[in-house]
C-alpha cells in the first residue's frame, strides 16, 4: 500500500522517485545513525518517538517547514503535535498512536457480581479483591484481580505512569525528574498494596514486547481479572481468545485521589525527514509526506497513511483518518481508546529517555517482588534518573 501511494505521488510529481526500504526494528536506529549522513542514506524515516530528541540533537531530524507545521496544527490533536515538537519546531508527521486503558474480563466481573469497571483507585483495589480467587485451603491464588507486567521496560512503566498521570503526577517536568512527588509515589504505593493483599501475583507477570508469557496467558485463560494495556494488543487477544474475545471490556484508567481525570500514557511513531540530506531531497520529502498524510491520497477522506495503518489494525492519529475509519474503529475494544485520545499524555521523549525508562522499570519491579518499599524505590529512582538526564543533556 505504501508503494502504491509512492507511485501515485511520482505520477503527480515527475522527476521525484520514492524508494521504500524495510529495516528490522532492532537495526532501525543504528541504521539512521550510521547511514544518515551518507549521500545514499535515507531521506525519510519512520521512527519511535522516544528516539526523537537524540536525532534532533544530531541534526538528523529536520524541522518541519511552515506549511507542514500548519498542516499538523489543523489536522492532528494538539497533544500529539506536542509529542513530535522539539526545540519549538515539529519534526515530522505522527502516524501510529498507542495509548493505555483498563482491560477487564466481563465474564469474571459477572461471576463476582461486579456491575461496572472501577473509576477510582479505591474502586480498583476493591474490585481486584472481589476478583481474586484462592484454592480450597485459602492459600494459593488461582485467579488474580489485577495483573502487572515485569521484564519489559515499556510494559512495566507505561501502565504505572498512566496511573501516575491520572493522579495528577508526572514522570518529569521538562528535564527534571518528579519521582519523589507524593502523587507519583502514591501509584507505587498502590502497586505495593495490591501485591501485599495478594490480588496481584508477581509470578503471573512476566512478558516481553510481543506479550508472550504468563502475563498474556493468564489474561487469555481467565486467570487475571484486570490489566492496563495498550490498544495495539487487540490482535494478540483476538488470536489467542477466539470467541472468548467478546468477554474483554475496556474502560478509562481509574483516577487517583489527587487526580481530576483519566490521563493515559500515549506514544507514537512518526515519519521524519533527514536533516543531513541535501535541500532538494528534503523539500521533496516533505512534499511526499504532506501528500501521504493528506485527504487526497486515501479513500473516502482518509489519508493513504490512515488506510495503511487501519489495514493492519493500528490506530491512526490524524483526526480526519479517525473520522473516515469510524466504522472500523467503533468496535467495543477500540472505541474507548479513540475516545481517550484527546486526554492522553505523551510519554516524555527526552534525551536519555530509554535509559530513564529502564531505571524506573527496575525499581517498580523491586516493589512488585518485595525488594524495596515504594518510598525506597521512588527515592532511588529519583537519584538515578536525575543522573541519567543530567549526563544525557551535558
TrEMBL record:
<dbReference type="Pfam" id="PF01547">
    <property type="entry name" value="SBP_bac_1"/>
</dbReference>
<dbReference type="GO" id="GO:0055052">
    <property type="term" value="C:ATP-binding cassette (ABC) transporter complex, substrate-binding subunit-containing"/>
</dbReference>
<comment type="similarity">
    <text>Belongs to the bacterial solute-binding protein 1 family.</text>
</comment>
<dbReference type="GO" id="GO:1901982">
    <property type="term" value="F:maltose binding"/>
</dbReference>
<dbReference type="InterPro" id="IPR006059">
    <property type="entry name" value="SBP"/>
</dbReference>
<dbReference type="GO" id="GO:0042956">
    <property type="term" value="P:maltodextrin transmembrane transport"/>
</dbReference>
<keyword id="KW-0732">Signal</keyword>
<protein>
    <submittedName>
        <fullName>Extracellular solute-binding protein</fullName>
    </submittedName>
</protein>
<dbReference type="GO" id="GO:0015768">
    <property type="term" value="P:maltose transport"/>
</dbReference>
<keyword id="KW-0813">Transport</keyword>
